[in-house]
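Q: How would the structure tokens look for this protein?
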Amino acid sequence: MNRSQKNEVNSAKMFSIVVAVLLLCHILPISLYIVLTIENVNYKELSFGTTLSVTVNSSINFLIYCACGKAFRRRFSELIADAFSKVKGVCNVRDLNNVLTTTSSGNNISNSDN
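A: Here is the predicted structure in token form.
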């Protein structure tokens, strides 16, 4: 099997896992919705459970992508590194320390330039 075929197989496996988790997490909300609609009843506890189930699905999808996808992990790491470098460029630790020491000593920032 060549590299392209391996990538396709891995993508298919990841997609299958995502779909299986989606179905497992949505069986409860869908079935409860059907039963509660037929019975014309509303329980807050069940609503919370269904919302939690859908939220768990979203969280698990991220973990599946991290576990199965090398390209996803690489790109995600690049995005995080890029975001931190932008934050570091905007808010340098040394500048932050200067602001904190200036404001804590009772001087305002505009007087520190004198």
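Residues 86 and 95 are 15 Å apart (CA to CA).

The chain has two domains: 1-68, 70-114.

Upvote if useful.
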